[in-house]
Amino acid sequence: MILKDKEILLGISGGISAYKVCELVRLLIKAGAHPQVVMTENASKFVSPLTFETLSQRPVYTDLFARGEKPVLHIELTDKAELLVIAPANANIIGKIANGIADDLLSTLYLAFSGKVLVCPAMNVKMYQHPAVQENLRRLKNRGVEILEPEEGELACGWEGKGRLAEPEVILEACEHLLAPKDFAGKKILISAGPTREAIDPVRFISNRSSGKMGYAIARASKSRGAEVVLVSGPTQLRPPLGVKLVQVESAKEMEKACLKYSSWADVIIKAAAVADFSPKTAPSSKMKKEKLPKAIELVPTPDILAELGKKKKKGQILVGFAAETEDVLKNARKKLKEKNLDLIVANDVSRKDAGFDVDTNI
Ligand code: CTP
User: Fold this and answer.
1) Which atom of ligand 1 is nearest to the CA of 192?
2) Which of 123, 269, 289, 338 could form an S-S bond across to 127 if both were Cys, CB 3.0 to 4.6 Å?
């Protein structure tokens, strides 16, 4: 939603990770944005401009002196755009833009552009750590340019370390952060997400079908809109949202402890987590052998974290709960709203195919 109809200039400099930007273009288009690709001459040695032309359905520009229907290309391109993303940004383009050098189309665009700029460095770890590159990045940061740090790992040059281009999904999220309205600025939001796991023994547990997608999406949107976010999460397969404080927990008891720790800090608490309602009364510290398995496992209720937060609610705090229901959805949700002292409840009919657990849509 945030990127819908946004004009984004996407500058690609020479580096093997230029291939990852193909996926970024796809993601931007899926998000409704209009990416305009500009490549340096060296970038076009790694990936053909035709690839980006095909993906973006627009001409790709590489030459400052290209003519045609656009008489002053760099002004024409920068006037329309709301964001300039440089990915990958190699040491050369970082050096040029940090020092105001404009000797090709991309470096000239940077100078002619007065909007927000996101730089995504990617290079060999020794180059990245070089004082010259670090000094240039600091200079850009001080000028208000957003730097999306490279990731650590195996590099195409054979080295191991920091220098991999951030993943396309992460770059997309950074774009959202830069273009979203900041109407949550100054707000502190505590969000819980995912399932909890209640141990039967060290290898077995009771849990539920929650994927954590809802809580993570709320955390991501809250952060984009300027809030400070603490995300208390049970075990999930999801990438943590950019810029949020992630507190990882496993059991309902651990989630309770983490939520209570941050509850007085928060202006808003959103409890999207699917907390297990029961936990085995005892869990041996060594694995139970098949032949000695008990016939039944005695369960005890877990703490109702939301109800506890409702009792402790401070003045002005907004408490939001979720209700996972399969029947009498509204009636049951209203009951929870009242009994747990909530301000809002999201009633979820989890028996529907397009709602509930582990889906990308919800109702
Ligand atoms: N919740 C909680 N602690 C629990 C159980 C639930 O904080 N031990 C919270 C959930 O995070 C959610 C809300 O309470 O925001 C409602 O959860 P839900 O599973 O729909 O309801 P329950 O209260 O567990 O009741 P039931 O399972 O009987 O429907």
Assistant:
1) 11
2) 123
Q: What does the angle CA 6 – CA 83 – CA 122 come to, to the nearest 5 degrees?
A: 125
CA distance 116 to 114: 7
For the chain, how far is it from start to end, CA to CA, in angstroms?
17
CA 290/CA 201 separation, integer angstroms: 12
Q: Which residues contact 75 (CB under 8 A, 6 or more apart)?
A: 112
As given in the structure block, the two tokens for residue 198 are 């209640």
Candidate list 120, 157, 175, 259, residue with the active-site label: 157
Count the residues in the chain: 363
Largest CA distance in the chain: 82
Residue keyed to tokens 């052998």: 289
Alpha helix positions (H), 31-160: 43-46, 49-56, 73-80, 91-98, 105-112, 125-129, 131-142
- Span 67-112, pLDDT tens digits: 655 667 778 888 889 999 999 999 999 999 999 999 999 999 999 9
Q: Within 6 Å (CB) of ligand 1, which residues are found?
A: 252, 271, 273, 275, 277, 302, 304-306, 321-324, 336
Gap between the Cα atoms of 356 and 195, Å rounded: 13
CA–CA distance, 39 with 41 (Å, rounded to integer): 6
Listed as ranges, residues in the chain with pLDDT below 70 are: 67-71
Q: What CA–CA distance (Å, rounded) separates 169 from 243?
A: 14
DSSP assigned state of 17: G
Q: Which of 190, 320, 319 is nearest to 265 (CA)?
A: 190
Measure the CA–CA gap between 205 and 93, rounded to whole angstroms. 51
Alpha carbon separation from 121 to 128, 164, 331 (Å, rounded)? 8, 8, 53
Structure tokens at 118: 């996101």
